[in-house]
Amino acid sequence: MKKIRKAVIAVAGSGTRLLPATKSMPKEMLPVVDKPIIQLVVEELVAGGIEDIILVTKWDKKPLEDHFDHSWALEHDLAESGKKEKLAEMKRISEMANFIYVRQKGPYGNGTPVLSAASLVQDEAFMYVWGDDLVRSKVPFAKQMIDDYQKTGHLMIGVQKVPRNQVDRYGIVSLKDKKTMQLNGIIEKPEIKSAPSQLADFGRMILNQEIVDILKKTKLGKGNELWIVDAIRDYIQAGGEFYAKEVKDGEWLTTGDPWNLLRANLEYALERKDLKQALKKYLKNI
Predict the structure, then answer these.
(1) What is the pLDDT of residue 208?
(2) How do residues 161-180 score in pLDDT, each as one tens digit?
(3) Nearest Cα to 4, choosing from 157, 123, 176, 167?
(4) Which residues contact 147 (CB under 8 A, 6 or more apart)?
(5) How far is CA 252 from CA 17, 58, 203, 206, 208, in A?
(6) Which DSSP category does 50 fall into?
(7) To which H or E segment does residue 83 belong?
(8) pLDDT in tens, 256-284
(9) Residue 1 confidence (pLDDT)
(10) Which domains does the chain have, with CATH numbers?
(11) Which run of H or E residues covers position 10?
């Protein structure tokens, strides 16, 4: 089976829940400790074997594009001042993948970035990722998904169990088979009483050309938006198999609002040898 080497990342959102921080800065460039959110996402993908990163952007995302480019003046200054480790890190950021930028065109919705990048992923399976979703795990989650795909050929979406009283905030999967995690479908923000499970989907998927072709014909759905889950539903109803994939030895962390961004910062800081003890002491004191 052909190895998955491409990933499409949706980064065209405005981040209004994080205003005013996102007034002139893409939300994906906000820091988690000392790395932008988007860099952590890309590093996970690269660790999973992804070589081509296709970022679907809009007019105000230039800082994001610049981040993955060489900064010749900065690199020159670091070299002149003898900061070899910092220089190597700056070069690594620019060279860890091939970066392609595509402007989003089409209706509002999380299915539109796939259509915007469709010509770049023709006839091959690819990962589709939200640019503000992080996954902390011992084995990078992208690698877990890609390894699973190489063994089974399954298209899939990342899921994580959430408290029952929060299921109305997420897309919740309905399982056809709990053992294999095969899906019946995905219900977007169901009522708490009628939710088919507590497994919430998030921004990690493996899709293929069949899903893209269905998405091209998918009508606008809830909120007059183009939803990727509607295309997945139609794919399943047409006889296709689609699966849920839980994170092993880790957790999904969203960063789309102030509390969750703060929580992500704390979780990542507590993994850092240079910050862990000081942070624990500070938290205990307050």
Answers:
(1) 96
(2) 999 999 988 889 999 988 89
(3) 123
(4) none
(5) 19, 26, 9, 16, 23
(6) -
(7) none
(8) 999 999 999 999 999 999 999 999 999 99
(9) 72
(10) 6-285 (3.90.550.10)
(11) strand 6-10
